Amino acid sequence: MELPEILFNPLVRGILGICLMSAIFLGAMAAVWFERKLSADIQQRYGPMRTGPHGLLQLVADAIKLFTKEDIIPKNADRLLFVAAPIMMMGSVFLMLVAIPFGAIIINGDTYPIAATDMDISILYIEAVSAVSIIGIFMVAYSANNKYSLLGAFRNFARMIGYEVPLGLTIVSVAIMAGSLNIVEIAQAQSPLWFIFKQPIGFIVFFIALMADMGRLPFDQNESEEELIAGWITEYTGMRFGLGFFAEYIHLILGSMLVVLLFLGGWNLPAVLTSNNILGIVLPTVFFLLKVVLVMLFIIMLRWSVPRFRIDQVVDISWKKLLPLALLNLGWVIALGLLG
């Protein structure tokens, strides 16, 4: 059996999917540790600074705390929705995970993406299933019988509706420039010039809209502890809170991968570096993951460097600034296509 046949074997794809799922969980744990360590260094928090070497045991302490906390379901809550909401949130993550490549193998000049599946419309699929998480958030807020949780969910709706439009327009611009809705082909179309250089405005709009989509500071109005007392997740305790928290970090990793795949060239390297089969197996994936880590570090650093926007400022930025810029970028891409 030749290599392409082996890679497309359903059993191999299944094993690859399990491996990718394990890798994404380990990556999320590393992201949690790094963010807690960085915030502890900045704010002089003792736990993540001193629990074990470099604060590594703080993750173990957090896990013990979450597993041993009392599981409370509020009085008059809708128990079915309250219990099922974490499944919906984690389901959104797993559905995205199916279509995102984690790198590629280049053998004899042929590229084989490391992904559980290869869809012709993968970028549209990822955009669609990422929005499923908002259903889980609304299930939490609605079922908790708490008006502040519900208020947090509605603020989340306002933010998501506002930022999905410019985010979608920039993805369409990228798809037009690449001539494909397949995320693998979009990454390959950036050899040798990355799309960040061809449409810099599109990159800025996409990155800001993605930050809002992930709910990262300065766009975390759905939680905003000072105003809503943890927002939509107020009534969750123990591992229910832990799953919601963990889904946020997995979204952070997958979002960073999208930035690299759509604008930063994916795994593309000069052919001279991948002409050797051994280097072709290792280097593209290492190069891709290195860029993903750098994007993640920048997003985490940003959280501790900027203040939170008010909800009215968030809405203004989306509809009055990002949307016109996204339309301008779309016009630029169409003009380039007509001239080219």
TrEMBL record:
InterPro entries: F420H2_dehydrogenase_H, NADH_UbQ_OxRdtase_su1/FPO, NADH_UbQ_OxRdtase_su1_CS. Its main location: membrane. Keywords: Cell membrane, Membrane, Transmembrane, Transmembrane helix. The keyword Transmembrane helix applies. It is an enzyme of class 1 (oxidoreductase). It is found in: Cell membrane; Membrane. One of its GO terms (molecular function) is NADH dehydrogenase activity. The chain crosses the membrane at residues 12-34, 80-107, 122-144, 165-187, 193-212, 249-269, 281-302, 322-339. GO terms for biological process: aerobic respiration. It catalyses: methanophenazine + reduced coenzyme F420-(gamma-L-Glu)(n) = dihydromethanophenazine + oxidized coenzyme F420-(gamma-L-Glu)(n) + H(+). GO terms for cellular component: plasma membrane. Its EC number is 1.5.98.3. Pfam families: NADHdh. It is a multi-pass membrane protein. Belongs to the complex I subunit 1 family. PANTHER family: NADH DEHYDROGENASE SUBUNIT 1, NADH-UBIQUINONE OXIDOREDUCTASE CHAIN 1. NCBIfam families: F420_dehyd_FpoH, PRK06076.1-2. Component of the F(420)H(2) dehydrogenase (FPO complex) which is part of the energy-conserving F(420)H(2):heterodisulfide oxidoreductase system. The membrane-bound electron transfer system of the complex plays an important role in the metabolism of methylotrophic methanogens when the organisms grow on methanol or methylamines. Catalyzes the oxidation of methanophenazine to dihydromethanophenazine. It shuttles electrons from F(420)H(2), via FAD and iron-sulfur (Fe-S) centers, to methanophenazine (an electron carrier in the membrane). The FPO complex is composed of at least 13 different subunits. FpoA, FpoH, FpoJ, FpoK, FpoL, FpoM and FpoN proteins constitute the membrane sector of the complex. This is F(420)H(2) dehydrogenase subunit H. It comes from Methanolobus chelungpuianus.
